[in-house]
Amino acid sequence: MTSFPSTTFLLLLVTFLNFLYILSAKNAPFSMSFPLTSTTLSHNSSSKALFLSSLIATSHQTTNAKAMPRVPSLNYKSTFKYSMALIITLPIGTPPQNQQMVLDTGSQLSWIQCHKKIPKVPPPTTSFDPSLSSSFSVLPCSHPLCKPRIPDFTLPTSCDQNRLCHYSYFYADGTLAEGNLVREKITFSRSQTTPPLILGCATESGDAEGILGMNLGRFSFASQAKVQKFSYCVPIRQGNHTVKPTGTFYLGQNPNSRTFRYVNLLTFLQSQRMPNLDPLAYTIGMVGIKINGKKLNISERVFRPNAGGSGQTIVDSGTEYTFLVEEAYNKVREEIIKLAGRKLKKGYIYGDALDMCFDSQYRMEIERLIGDMTLQFENGVEILINKERMLDEVEGGIHCVGIGRSETLGIASNIIGNFHQQNLWVEFDLRNRRVGFGKGECSTQV
Ligand SMILES: *[C@@H]1O[C@H](CO)[C@@H](O)[C@H](O)[C@H]1NC(C)=O
Ligand SMILES: *[C@@H]1O[C@H](CO)[C@@H](O)[C@H](O)[C@H]1NC(C)=O
Ligand SMILES: *[C@@H]1O[C@H](CO)[C@@H](O)[C@H](O)[C@H]1NC(C)=O
């Protein structure tokens, strides 16, 4: 019997393991990709998601607006938040249960739909059953998050009879949404698991999708999971709805990032915070808009927060269309009317917001007349919107330009919605506090 071969083997094994360690820890930064689809949520579903996302803002405003003057007033009144949602599926719990989540760079807390999978009342089959997960735990009332007046976070929470942190809310239509704040892990693989993250667990709601809150707040998924960067490519929306193209979502390094051009995030100090500003949103410096090659006469000032915080320009994956403040919107509308006004569907407004609409038979002609649009940012970075992506079919026979007036929705910001992020890589580089854009062919990535 000789020990020589096994020593050699051990040595080789150590060398190999060392190599693996170096590969994963040094040379290959964390990178994980997921399929991304865009889906129209049902109206009920989207209105509930709407509430959950704006919970923080509205609860502040109604309960202690004076005490908390710097809370954002992004109280979207419309269903354009989540009406066309970007959906990814994440493995949550131990063992993992796949959960569909709306990817939302505009909100903080993540939510999953929690239901016991009781056979007699079939819940949405995609919901999460806490009793099947060994890593699930509830947040006790003593947790700081359950106390009101946490600086950047307040939910209408209460202590339930089990001393658990509970929230409940009645919608305008009288239906009830409620649940608990909980902790749960995301289990990507046996070796890659997040620590337990604080999530909302919606127990009383008919919706199927959860929300993945990805803003700059400390309780967002990105912050809690210490994600250094993430990116996505929104698939092209097909007019005929028969095929569902799939894009890509990356956590960590994106192999395409060498082609990205970056704009720094505008950051806001605690002392600078203003009533209409959302300091946790991804705010970038927009400098102008070009339509059909012509730079519109819009002052850069309207794309920046003013003294009251109105006018910041944010990149939001959770809002469908793009919304511009009055001064910018008027210039865009003026130009589009100049180019294609003869065919405008007069008096027609879609969803209280889109008022540049046309009968569908003119679609091609309108696209040709309006041409491409370019959104311009600091550092020479541009988003080109092809003329084929200027109009959206909002109902049978009617196409509208996918841009609305922020004020009509009660929004004080400029918002770049996911309609204008199609076939585009958008990277949120948290470590370097910047947003990158790159040309993508998203629908063929997976
Ligand atoms: C949607 O809401 C309406 C009224 O609010 C209700 O009648 C309907 O049953 C709901 N649909 C679903 C699928 O929950
Ligand atoms: C729908 O669009 C896709 C992609 O453009 C195309 O391949 C498919 O044939 C279309 N289906 C119908 C029924 O028009
Ligand atoms: C640009 O707009 C401003 C105010 O909106 C106006 O005073 C100025 O004359 C305009 N410039 C041109 C070249 O139209």
TrEMBL record:
The keyword Cell cycle does not apply. GO terms for molecular function: aspartic-type endopeptidase activity. Pfam families: TAXi_C, TAXi_N. PROSITE patterns: ASP_PROTEASE, PEPTIDASE_A1. Residues 86-438 form the Peptidase A1 domain. Gene3D superfamilies: Acid Proteases (2.40.70.10). InterPro entries: Aspartic_peptidase_A1, Aspartic_peptidase_AS, Pepsin-like_plant, PEPTIDASE_A1, Peptidase_aspartic_dom_sf, Plant_Aspart_Prot_A1, TAXi_C, TAXi_N. Keywords: Aspartyl protease, Glycoprotein, Hydrolase, Protease, Signal. GO terms for biological process: proteolysis. One of its GO terms (cellular component) is extracellular region. Residues 1-25 form the signal peptide. The active site is at D104, D316. Belongs to the peptidase A1 family. This is Peptidase A1 domain-containing protein. It comes from Capsicum baccatum (Peruvian pepper). The lineage of its organism: Eukaryota, Viridiplantae, Streptophyta, Embryophyta, Tracheophyta.
